[in-house]
Amino acid sequence: MSNAIENNLGTWSAHVQNEGKTPQIIVNGRFPTNGHKPGYHLVKNDPQGINPEELLLTLMFGNLVDPKGDVYFTARYSEVITTSEQYKTVLVMDPDGRSLAQMKVEQEMSVGR
To answer: Tens digit of pLDDT for each residue in 11-48?
Structure first.
């Protein structure tokens, strides 16, 4: 079962990797464009929103994401987090505030829990 919420532009996932001493959240996206390649990357919004359990990210140059596009690009974001339960969902927007994707955060099971 996918952790993506319907109406995402492209394929997105978010999970917590908990292999070392500190957990990390990792967000991956694959999204359609018309072939423009300006250097897509995800940045954490500052300030974050009113819901502390939702990580807000902006896909830089995300305004070039086109649901009818046939050239796909990828972007990745990772951050060390305080606890593996810090974020429940992730919202990805373009610089103009258009929602590109929203997903639930998957928890990876670690050995010895």
So the answer is: 999 999 988 789 999 999 999 999 988 999 999 999 99
Of 102, 71, 106, 76, residue with least CA distance to 9: 102
Q: Rg of the Cα trace of the chain?
A: 14
Indicate the SS3 state at residue 63. helix
Residue type, 2: S
Site of tokens 């072939």 = 35
Q: What angle do CA 112, 24, 21 make, to 5 degrees?
A: 45
CA distance 78 to 90: 12
State the pTM of this model: 0.88
Closest CA to 44 of 30, 32, 60: 60
E strand segments, the chain: 11-17, 24-33, 41-44, 54-60, 71-80, 89-93, 99-104, 106-107
**Within-domain flag for 6:** no
Number of domains in the chain: 1
